Amino acid sequence: MNGFLFHLRRKNDEEGFILPVTLMITFLMFAFVLHEMKMYEAEKQFIKAREEMMILEGLMRKAVYDVEKGVPEYDHGTLVYADGKVKYNVDFRMGNVLVLTLVAVSHDGGKHVSHAFYDKIKQKIVRWEENE
Q1: Which among 100, 104, 81 has a CA at the least distance from the CA of 89?
Q2: DSSP β-bridge partners for residue 101
Q3: Which phi and psi angles does 92 have, rounded to 5°?
Q4: Higher pLDDT, 84 or 91
Q5: 101 and 89 in contact (C-beta within 8 Å)?
């Protein structure tokens, strides 16, 4: 009978079992939370970059509209908007075509450069080139 009680006591003796399981579950939860935080930061950076790109594209569209509305009187200048500014420079003239370099700069410091070919007879931009 003494052997039977020893066997029951040994079977219920689980000291040291809970701590490793608890540590493993804690580690897995910590790793998951850390991974989600990294994903959140990457997504936040992506959204900020996308927002900056949209602001710069909007500045370029406004500048194109203003250039087509009235040919720049000077060889260089700055168009100021609420989101930033666009600097333009007439690089050279090819007959009736002006080659404009447009540099959009947002308030956050983002920058985008494009070249526009403006036909004075048609009074519109006939070609557009983006710089990467």
Answers
A1: 100
A2: 89, 115
A3: -160, 165
A4: 84
A5: yes
Tokens 């020893």 sit at which residue? 6
Cα dist from 103 to 44, 76, 84, 130, whole Å: 26, 11, 11, 11
Residue 108: Cβ within 10 Å count: 12
**Terminal CA-CA length for the chain:** 86
pLDDT value at 98 more than 90:
no
Q: Is 47 exposed, middle or buried (0-12, 13-18, 19+ CB in 10 A)?
A: exposed
How much is the pTM?
0.71
pLDDT at 33 over 70: yes
Question: pLDDT band at residue 119, thresholds of 50, 70 and 90?
Answer: confident
Token pair for 61: 């569209």
Transcribe 67-104 into DSSP letters: HHHS--SSSEEEEE-SSEEEEEEEEEEETTEEEEEEEE
